[in-house]
Predict the 3D structure of the following.
Amino acid sequence: MAKPLEGDTLKAFLSQGTRTAKVAIARKDGSCTVAPVWFVMDGDDLLFNTMNTSLKGRVLARDPRIALCVEDDEFPYGFASIEGEATLEQLTPEELLPWATKIAARYVPAEQAEAFGRRNAVEGELLVRVRPNKVFAFSGVAD
């Protein structure tokens, strides 16, 4: 039987392994797009980075509404569907580096995390902070 995920259990689910978040945003013409992103948790917030000229960066600058889905694709499966608002933080490369490295460290071999962090902590790169306002999340959906 499926169990709701909330509080610390939800944070643990979102932080486990190399699960990516699938980010959904709406273009100016109303059409939608979805893209996978690497992310980390900061308290209740999800953080990822993107270039200010990317589609995600441009759309979120215009409209901060965002939806994300993170899934466990191993039996008995689980997911977290999150709606919220994104805040775009324009940091200096030096300020962004710790976050970019922390995000990379979740997804790449440890010895490559710093190089990935430096690659992404550049002028024009944004730190996107998503504050959830609606969460629908369950584990064990196939139990």
